[in-house]
Design goal:
The protein is α/β, with parallel strands linked by helices. About 50% of the residues lie in helices and about 15% in strands.
Amino acid sequence: MIISRRSWFQLGGGALLARAIRAAGLPVKIGVTDWNLRQEAKLAAVELAKRLGFDGVEISIGVGTEKLPLSEAALQKQYVEEGRRIDLPIPSTCLNILHRNVLKSDPLAQRWVAESIPITRNVGARVILLPFFGKGALQTRQEMDFVADYLREIAPEAEKAGVVLGLEDTCSAEDNARMLERARSRAVRVYYDIGNSTNGGFDVVREIRWLGGERICEFHLKDNPNFLGQGKIDIPAVIEAIAEIGFRGWAHLETTTPTKSVEDDMTVNLRYVRGLIARRG
């Protein structure tokens, strides 16, 4: 049975469960992506994420031509002030322009990665999601090596800023680990998406355990187009694997809306994940 967002929050369930999990000292926090809130690169995503009961929000840096939209100091300040006003952190950013200017072959992409580092630092985030999908997917050893070599060059800037470059891609855990070894920096890690990896034919529970907590910077949780727990991915096993590797950080819902209601459907998925974490604690 699906409980509506209104009923759930009238019962105080979202806030009470979040407080109980924090009191238990469990290290995984649950955030949400601004694009799945249908607020991509919009300040309104911060307030909406808070209202729905999330611990934080992952924001898009945006797609521009001459510059990245979030490079504007005034806009960065607005995000910081809004997060402080409602007490909601921004743990990570998404360099979504890499869907257009792909890092494996477009020199302009390297400029965007370099510019995303101070942007991410300035909004108080610590992870940049670097996407490698579609025409940007890493399909050959040569492409993987090219990207890893560039990341090795830019990694000192990320280290200096206290920012991690997170690789979200369609590669195996082993290929991702090889890229991390080639990049030679703790500032380059895997941004693990359980939905993308499942669709790629990988055993996500095995891969999470194999990669371990040191190689993974953040997670995306999804089993689209289904509600979590109602599709093909064993979400309880995923949560168990995340706990077993000692992961301390953020897992963001990148879930779609089966009933077409962002607020209701996000609330259902958030309640489900929080319930799994609470039962484990």
